[in-house]
Every structure is written in structure tokens, then in C-alpha cells.
Design a protein that fits this description.
The chain has 55 residues and is an alpha+beta fold. The chain contains one helix and four strands, in the order αββββ. The mean pLDDT is 78. Pfam families: DUF5960.
């Protein structure tokens, strides 16, 4: 798969939101440098609307 990470951000954020995790792992097979990477987010809700999350 040679799709740049910037083009699959919606899929990544959807996966993070539905799994209730604040991170995702980029496998070493998909990384250009050949190393596994964990990308962490801080997730917050907006007080006016609990269905909106900020990362």
C-alpha cells in the first residue's frame, strides 16, 4: 500500500474513535523508515456538544 498517511487521516480518526483508544500503531511494514510507530492523541469533549471530540 503506497497511500500517504495524510490521505487516510479520516479512516485513522474513525478507527481511533470507534475503538475508544487514544492511539494507533503504524506497522513497520507500512513505514518508510522500517520502524513501528505509535501515534498518541489527547481526546477531549466540547462542553456544548458531547458528541464532538477534539484531538
Amino acid at each position: 500500500m503506497s497511500i500517504p498517511l495524510t490521505f487516510i487521516t479520516d479512516d485513522i480518526l474513525l478507527s481511533v474513535a470507534t475503538s475508544h483508544k487514544c492511539y494507533f500503531k503504524l506497522n513497520r511494514e507500512k513505514a518508510k523508515d522500517g520502524q513501528a510507530h505509535y501515534i498518541f492523541f489527547t481526546i477531549e469533549t466540547i462542553n456544548e456538544n458531547q458528541k464532538i471530540y477534539l484531538s
